[in-house]
From TrEMBL:
Gene responsible for this protein: FN3KRP
Record's keyword terms, sorted: ATP-binding, Kinase, Nucleotide-binding, Transferase
Protein name stated in the entry: protein-ribulosamine 3-kinase
Protein family: Belongs to the fructosamine kinase family.
Provenance organism: Python bivittatus (Burmese python)
Catalytic activity: N(6)-(D-psicosyl)-L-lysyl-[protein] + ATP = N(6)-(3-O-phospho-D-psicosyl)-L-lysyl-[protein] + ADP + H(+); N(6)-D-ribulosyl-L-lysyl-[protein] + ATP = N(6)-(3-O-phospho-D-ribulosyl)-L-lysyl-[protein] + ADP + H(+)
Gene Ontology terms for molecular function: ATP binding; kinase activity; protein-ribulosamine 3-kinase activity
Length: 309
């Protein structure tokens, strides 16, 4: 690993910087290099490259919005013995506390960024003698992403779709159902899903959804703060419904009331919010069921039972 890092980063200094550990999925460690301090995630799985490419694409896109701080991505490196490394800027992070409210504002800004680009595009189209726009990030009209991103280590289907409900049903829940079917052939889950699919459009009413750039895996373990303010990391981005982002945030704690009130001061709750939040949590419970086993079956089944009532 160290030889690969030295070569690929072009650094002669490579000294452990006393921060080593891991998240739920990968092992991580910080190093001093010729170019400053970096944080390296290491994963031996065959799918590591795809997972890290998705994380790199997610961080790059979030960075371009200039709304919320993320570690700057540097490089994905294949390991000769299999697996891959992901190198990014090291940040001195601690638990989110003082900056929770600011995170609420900045997350809403991230979610509104694409909509604002759309509004600007319309305005510019009407303006006479408009100037060429130099922005790297363009208005996105559909739901999806130009890279596969992994929530945990399972790949998400990010093929572009015009319709959000279709995207969420076909490309989020259905692949999880297919895995459950393959792993356990759970009959109750299959039957509930058949009923729930018919019900989903009614949970959306007349809601108009503008694609929003999402972090995609915003649980309490993927947010923090440094001296400058809030930081989010370990994203699995795609353009989707902004409400989707708050689903996993609500599942494992870590977000205070000040975070939510700041967020909703910029993006108010629309009618039917609470039920859709449950629907979006269903994805995460199923994803956990497929990652960590049957301990998450009960929650998945209960959500479906409640939503089909
Ligand atoms: N850029 C970084 N700089 C310093 N520490 C980091 C950085 N990214 C992650 N970490 C540390 O590693 C932990 C796990 O990171 P994460 O990216 O969530 O890994 P995983 O993909 O395994 O969940 C974080 O909680 C944090 O303590
Ligand atoms: Mg993580």
């Amino acid at each position: 690993m160290e030889a690969a890092l030295r070569r690929e980063l072009g650094t002669s200094v490579l000294r452990p910087a006393g921060h080593s550990g891991g998240g739920c999925i990968s092992h991580g460690e910080s190093f001093h290099t010729d170019h400053g301090k970096v944080y390296v995630k290491c994963n031996a799985k065959a799918e590591a490259r795809r997972m890290f490419d998705g994380e790199m694409a997610s961080l790059t896109t979030i960075l371009q919005t200039q709304t919320v701080k993320v570690p700057k991505p540097i490089k994905v490196i294949d390991l000769p013995e299999g697996g891959a490394l992901f190198v990014m800027e090291h940040l001195d992070m601690r638990s989110l506390n003082r900056h929770a409210e600011k995170l609420g504002i900045q997350l809403a800004d991230l979610h509104l960024h694409n909509q604002k680009l759309g509004e600007k595009l319309k305005k510019d189209a009407n303006a006479i003698g408009k100037s060429e726009d130099q922005m790297d990030i363009h208005f996105v009209e559909e739901f999806g992403f130009n890279s596969v991103t992994c929530c945990g280590y399972l790949p998400q289907v990010n093929d572009w779709q015009q319709d959000w409900v279709n995207f969420f049903t076909r490309q989020r829940i259905q692949p999880q159902m297919d895995l459950i079917e393959k792993n356990s052939g759970d009959r109750e889950a299959r039957e509930l899903w058949a009923q729930l699919q018919l019900k989903i459009p009614s949970l959306f009413g007349e809601l108009k959804i503008v694609p929003a750039l999402l972090h995609g895996d915003l649980w309490g373990g993927n947010v923090a703060e440094d001296d400058s303010g809030p930081v989010i990391f370990d994203p699995a981005s795609f353009y989707g419904h902004s409400e989707y982002e708050l689903a996993i945030a609500g599942m494992f704690g870590g977000f205070s009331g000040s975070f939510y009130s700041a967020y909703h001061s910029k993006i108010p709750k629309a009618a039917g919010f609470d039920k859709r939040l449950k629907l979006y949590q269903l994805f995460h419970y199923m994803n956990h069921w497929n990652h960590f086993g049957g301990g998450y079956r009960g929650s998945s089944i209960n959500i479906m039972k409640n939503l089909v009532k």
